[in-house]
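Query structure, 175 tokens:
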């Protein structure tokens, strides 16, 4: 059976010549016209040119041609089946890789979405905390202002009381 594209091509050319009733010339003269591997495997060597119209010889040649055609057909079929299996295997591998990448990318996108939601939630919490802290600062500033006003008032009252007591002391001393 042909083992490669070159041997298969040679066998097909030989088959075409045999089917046309032509025979390759002397193998030494044209080495490329030597019987192909299919003919060798099947034990088919091209017979010498038939005498004109020998029906029995023509029948034998036709039978050998049919065997050769069957061998070539079988080889082509096996090669086609091998190529189909290889194609299916490659297709499966590529499909599996694509599914795995798609699945991995989907998982990564899901993780990124979770992280984004978590950050958005934290941002909302921080904004809430910031607003609370700003409110606390405002309240503390207002309280500080009230305490300062109160302290100023108390300080003024103390100053006035000290002044009044000083005046009373001086009046008492003067008496």
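Result returned for the query:
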């Amino acid at each position: 059976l042909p083992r490669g594209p070159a041997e298969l091509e040679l066998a097909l050319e030989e088959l075409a010549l045999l089917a046309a009733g032509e025979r390759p010339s002397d193998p030494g003269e044209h080495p490329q016209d030597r019987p192909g591997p299919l003919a060798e495997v099947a034990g088919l060597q091209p017979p010498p040119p038939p005498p004109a119209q020998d029906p029995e010889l023509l029948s034998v040649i036709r039978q050998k041609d049919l065997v050769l055609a069957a061998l070539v057909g079988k080889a082509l079929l096996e090669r086609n089946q091998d190529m189909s299996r290889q194609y299916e295997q490659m297709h499966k591998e590529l499909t599996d890789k694509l599914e795995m990448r798609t699945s991995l990318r989907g998982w990564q996108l899901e993780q990124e979405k979770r992280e984004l939601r978590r950050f958005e939630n934290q941002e909302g919490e921080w904004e809430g905390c910031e607003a609370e802290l700003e409110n606390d600062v405002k309240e503390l500033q207002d309280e500080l202002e009230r305490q300062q006003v109160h302290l100023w008032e108390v300080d003024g009252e103390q100053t006035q009381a000290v002044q009044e007591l000083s005046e009373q002391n001086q009046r008492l001393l003067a008496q």
